[in-house]
Specification:
Blueprint lengths: L5 E2 L9 E2 L9 H11 L4 E5 L11 H14 L4 E5 L10 H6 L4 E3 L6 H7 L5 H14 L4 E2 L1
Parallel strand pairs: 1-2, 3-4, 4-5, 5-6
Helix pairs in contact: 1-2
The protein binds iron/sulfur cluster (SF4).
Iron/sulfur cluster (SF4) binds next to loops.
Length: about 140
Amino acid sequence: MIMGDICTRACSFCNVKTGKPNILDPLEPTKIAEATRELNLKHVVITSVDRDDLKDGGAQHFSKVILEIRKINKNTTIEALTPDFLRKGEAYAKVVNANPDVFNHNIETVPSLYRSVRPGSRYFASLNLLKTVKEINKKKNIY
Ligand code: SF4
């Protein structure tokens, strides 16, 4: 899980801390890439907390992590399990353009429960994110 251990959302089912996150670690992409190599991982899933405090929701940082992993792990498949990038315009495209093997985004629950269990998120925005990512990259595996 990248971009720290403090989330700007407060989903009721989640055990991640909510609060004001720390600044991004500029060395994190390199560290993750090196850890992937040391562990000889065949497949790596990169996920993160929500970073509503950042202008692009952390999309650029997410993209850098993918690119750094690929640079030194040519045979590792990369899955990006992203936040919803709600109200961040087309920031998610930075992640898509880094070309992960799989683009993943969890919807978590049905629309009627969103207000109570995911108050900072929007079901149809998440659905639209998946739809739009597929339109940008028709070959991408999307879950
Ligand atoms: S957005 Fe993700 S990490 Fe943050 S509280 Fe919700 S489920 Fe947990």
